[in-house]
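To fix ideas, we quote verbatim one protein's residues and fold tokens.
>
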Amino acid sequence: MGETIARTMAKWVYSLKFSDIPGEVVEEVKKRIVDTAGVAVGAFNEEPVKISRSIALGTTGSRISSLVWGTLSYASADQAAFTNGCAARYFDFNDTYLSKEALHPSDTIPALVAAAEIVDADGKSLVEGIVAAYEIAARLADSYSVRSRGWDHTVYIGIASAAGAAKILGLDENGIEHAINIATTTGLALRQTRAGELSMWKGCAAAHAARNGLFSALLAWKGMTGPSPVFEGKFGFFKVALCGDKFELAPLGEGGFKVMQTSIKYWPVEYHSMSAVEAALRLREKAGEIKPDDIESVEVETFTVSYKIIVEDPEKWDPKTRETADHSLPYIVAASLLDGRVWLETFKPERFLAEDVRKVMKKTSIRVNPKYDEIYPEGIGNKIRVRLKDGRTLEEESIYPPGHFRNPLDRGGVEAKFNKLLEGLVPEERRREFLGDAWNIENLRRPFEIFRSLSVME
């Protein structure tokens, strides 16, 4: 057997240097740090975040500690990474990468910031770790769809977090490989997280994977070895997780760094519905105010991956939790048409349980258009056609919504989202302080300290 997949990853991660990373890639990393901080601290008062924070703060005093975002308190590094990761993911508002597997690479950032705190790493080291984690997560997603085997995409987040954290911790090739081996062995997660009626765990599963990746790297940092070959072995990933299937790891670094092909969310919805929101809001702008009784029918054309994830389960047509609602294409379209806007309040129970949206959902049909399958994953095609009782038929299509890597947000767009999320939670002066530091992250001696600016007002 030639070089193992884990060794290939470790060699590439170890060899990555800040000087190899182009300026435009560093800029995109900064945007994602800002975006992740905004969505995380914005979720400070949400129930799953409060639950995980209460556990993390019980570990205050640990010698290996990290900041719990939104506070000035510290917790054990793995618990802080979990809590911050839950916050970053809860609103389903952090960035996305689409390929054979769809995932959210910024789920790794809280764990990587924690790793930087542990070893007092500088800004360049943090950027290296983030670029490495994004690369591993995305190339794994390019290689195989684990959801086809009933595993959650967070399997890849755990592996990527281990690799990125090991890079920041300063491990050599062997140490990085052991971190990857431990994380892969221990990190399998069931796709049931995203099937049927979705629970709070939908927003916490990636945080658990990233926490496990960080813990795996910490073990390797202290000398723990991991089972090898973890992908190709007798009871390895290919044999057990993929039922004998194999994949060739997509070449790392080939054609540029993958962070450039990730997309920042413009609305807080499951990413495959992002273009449906844009189409629905354009349509609403054309039609003016729409009431349920004005609508004869709503027809949506989407693509297969979208249909399987956010349409086909019966629960997606009758959402009873926030987590199901933001993964329900029928609901998202109905709310967009009626309200003319989509924001955090769209996913409160009083909205997704309301009679008016339920009435529109009953008039809605959704089918797969093979044309959009051909476009995916480069684009996410959704078309909406509304027939009104006054005789009008209105239609809109979107493929590259705002924030898509082919239609990216500039700094101003990222800052606008950040400020909107944190208004009323963090004073404007401290938000400006954080942004000034974040846009200069590569030059900071202790980059993790910038998150202290985002402590939430009592």
The longest helix spans residues 123-143. The mean pLDDT is 96.
